[in-house]
Amino acid sequence: MPTLLLRLQGPMQSWGTRSRFDHRDTWPYPTKSGVLGLLAAALGRDREEDISDLAALRMGVRVDRKGVLRVDYQTAREIIAASLKAKVNVQSWRHYLSDAAFLVGLEGPASLLQAAHQALSNPRYVLYLGRKGYVPSPPIYLKDGLREEPLEVALRSYPYLLREKPREDLLLVLEAPDGRLVYDQPIAPFAKRRFGARYVREEVLSQDHIQVIGEDSFGDNHVD
């Protein structure tokens, strides 16, 4: 079954799974709900529309650069309280990943992946990396991102996203029947904000097995 590859790279990214009120978390790599939301935006789907076809795709992530976990502390003064009877000061802690780079793969029907690949090259809505202010630096679209290989092979064989050689082994994350539990599986249109559980298997991918292309060979597809 073919695989569609996406490049998620930028100065700031956030992929929350447990965010509530003033505390906004981030998972250490892109969540399925976040990636499918991005894909739905590229395809021009409204938040009320059915996304069951996208949710059925199998997802994997290769962590090319894990980035640095940081916290954006924000305050706002004299905000009208929910009771409308008083003004309060509000604090907010928003976690994000700084300077991270991920190669994301989605495995599924060829016709759906072809439509998604085309949409990523000319998205209907603005694409961002988890929060609206977090824009990608190089494009998410990879010209050679539509692969004939299955998910795991595509993630293992695609060239490293950065110019320099990896300084350490990489993390490979694959959707699997068991493993680490993540609550990021969309089970309804995004407007209903309903997410279920899925399992992922995390593996170490030796840096010696990563294909690194020379700097002279970097084209539009590989921008650090």
Describe this structure in words.
This protein is an alpha+beta fold and 224 residues long. It has helices at 32-43, 52-55, 110-121, 151-157; strands at 3-13, 23-24, 58-65, 68-80, 87-107, 146-147, 170-176, 180-186, 195-205. Strands 1, 2, 3, 4, 5, 6, 7, 8 and 9 form a 9-stranded mixed beta sheet that branches.
What's the assembly state of these chains? single chain
Structural class: alpha+beta
- The proportion of strand residues reads 35-45%
DSSP summary: helix tally: 4
Between the first and last Cα atoms, what is the distance in angstroms?
30 Å
General form: globular
Low-confidence stretches: none
Radius of gyration: 18 Å
Order of helical and strand elements: EEHHEEEHEHEEE
Outline the biggest β-sheet: 9 strands, mixed
The whole-number mean of residue pLDDT values reads 92
Distinctive features:
224 residues; alpha+beta; nine-stranded mixed β-sheet; 4 helices; 16% helix
Blueprint of the fold:
Elements: E1 3-13, E2 23-24, H1 32-43, H2 52-55, E3 58-65, E4 68-80, E5 87-107, H3 110-121, E6 146-147, H4 151-157, E7 170-176, E8 180-186, E9 195-205
Parallel strand pairs: 2-5
Antiparallel strand pairs: 1-5, 1-6, 3-5, 3-7, 4-5, 7-9, 8-9
